[in-house]
Amino acid sequence: MNSPTVPPLAARGKATRPRTPAGQSATAVLPHKKNAAAARVRIRLYRHGLGDCMLLRFARTDSDDTFNVLIDCGLITVAEQPREKMQAVANDIHQACQGRLDVVVMTHEHWDHVSGFHPTQARDIFDSMEIGEVWYGWSEDPRNELGQRLRAERAAKLNALATAVAAFDASPSPSMKQRGTELGRMLGFFGLKPGEPAGTKIGKTRDAFEYLQGKQDVKTRYLSPKQAPRPLGDLGNVRVYVLGPPPDEGMIKRSAPTRRGREVYELASELQLASNLDAAFLRLGPDGAPDDDSFVDCPFDPGLRREARPGQRYSQALSDIIHGVWQQTGQEWRRIEEDWTQAAETLALNLDSHTNNTCLVLAFEFIDSGEVMLFPADAQVGNWLSWQDLRWKVGSGVVTGPDLLARTVFYKVGHHGSHNATLRDKGLEQMTSEDLVAFIPVSKREAEKNRWMGMPFNPLLERLREKTFGRLLIADEPRPGDGDLGDLSAAARKQFKATVEESELWFEYSLR
Q: Would you say residue 288 has pLDDT above 70?
């Protein structure tokens, strides 16, 4: 339904028929219309760097108190002064919600989404707060068999990647060392800072991610798209839909779109493959194979294997080939003994995309107006595609995934505006509300420092500006000015700017 904040006539010059939410009469009185100046929700969007942190404060009808929802709280490892920044964010959260968080949403196990909950950053502040519930995706439920396997695969991949980085860092080859540096950036998602010595303990991200599971008096919920939409606490006018992670393993393992618009299904036997790669990279390291290495992952029987030894003698013909071709300067391109190590890059991308596809994706709906706020975290292709088939019975009607997209009036842009975390035809193009506002939590300087060039992705950026009529908030840029909002009337520009407050630490967008 069209919002009173930015009239659609000012945007496009034509009216559209309001959509009646499922289960509600078209003649129902909308309570929030009685006081259009009052904010029904204030969405505080933190601008602390490359990381996600959003605080939603929903107004209560019977008091001045608010219902407070925190979605993620993290910062990328390459950021400068991370503790100071996250302390500032956490203190601001504490003050804004008066020390009470009703719900904390942990979308997925990446450092730039959960680092604030680690002891090295701002856990002490969260320890001082009253927290009602923590929400995770179903894939984190210790009782779920598929979730158990996915977590075991993720841990095995992480261990294999860490072993590969240690082996590459110790290699005398400059190209291998460079690859180790590049792959080490991926370990930053799991709390390992680039440049930390090989063997540094991994698992910091998991510790932060699971922090609230062990916190006394905090109720833990594991959410699934199979569940009915849930009321948000005692707020009678808000309901929450769970769009992801998909309960289908095939969808979780669909990552990046191809040029033809198809998606891939990767690495079926992932747990065994990751274990084999871990063993292989361990042999490549400075200490070689451990004494208990079974070599079961090797392609040839041990009886057929020959290992090179110093001073080994060859036939004259083989010796001529080795010295005249193999070891000749300029012939390095012929050597294939390191080619197999390219599996490390594939493993890193696989680990990243599959973790992102386990993101908990939430849509908050105002029941009276049908307006939706969408928070997809870092969900990638498989997660997005699964929403097309979602259906929930609500009252006397049916709500679908595409229906929620069509009614989205606030979109937290996925994965800092990267190219593979906002689908086109089955994503942004289905967000047809003329009241759409979007936010990108990005720091281009920190993205470039981490060698993530082109973030945010320019074609996506331009389309977001078109879809929002310029109402696009970008964390490392000032809020949109009159020049950015040229497709809106002067009155509509004024109305939009009145809904956005700006400080050095955050934007706050009010939906009225």
A: no
